[in-house]
Amino acid sequence: MINRRRNFIFIHINKTAGRSISTALSTIDNHGVRTTKNYHFHMPMFWLMENIPDCKQLFSFAFVRNPFDWLYSNYAYITRELDIFKYFNPQANKIPSFKEWLLEDKWYSTRRRANQLNAVNPFPPMQLRQFGWWLDVNGTCAVDYIGRYEQLHQDFDYISQKLGMSTATLPHVNENKRNHNYRTMYDTEMIQMVEETHADDLSRFGYTF
Known about the structure:
This protein is α/β, with parallel strands linked by helices. It is built from nine helices and four strands.
C-alpha cells in the first residue's frame, strides 16, 4: 500500500493484521491507495525497490508475528473450505491436517523454498518467510519500522503519530474463525521444523514457541 500524500509504504505481510491496518490507513485524507491496479497488495520490499524507483524516499513499515502462530493462522485461513484450499492447491482433493500441510512436500514445505519472485510466479508465495518481505536484494533490512502483531495497537499508535494522523481504532477485518491456540497444534517434529526454517524470524525478534 502506498500513500504519496502522506509519503508512506505499508508492506502487507499476510496474517499480521494487514487488512485491519490497510482499512485504517485508507481513511487518511480518503487517499489510501494500492500501488497501482497492476500490483498485488502483498508485495515485498525488494520487489517495490526494483519497480518503484522512489520508494526509498517514502517512510516504509511492516508488521511481523510469531512464526508458530503465523503459520497456524495461514493454515486456518486457507483451509476454511475445500474450494478455498484448492484455489491455492489445485491438485488437492481433501484438506490436509496442519501437520501434513506443514511437513509434506506437496503442501507448505515445497512452497516455503520459493523465497523470491520470478516471471512465472509474480506474487510472493503465501508462506514467504516474514523476513523476506522487508529485505532488499542484498539481504539488508530495507524498511524503516517493523511493528509486532503481539503489540499491534501500541505499534500502530506510533505509526499514526509518525504519519501525522490522529490515533485510529483498528477494525477487526479478515478474522480467522479458529478454535485452537496454536501451541496445541504442534508436536516436537513440527516445532523443530519451524525452528529450522524460520530461524531468521525467530532470532531477529526473539520469538519462541
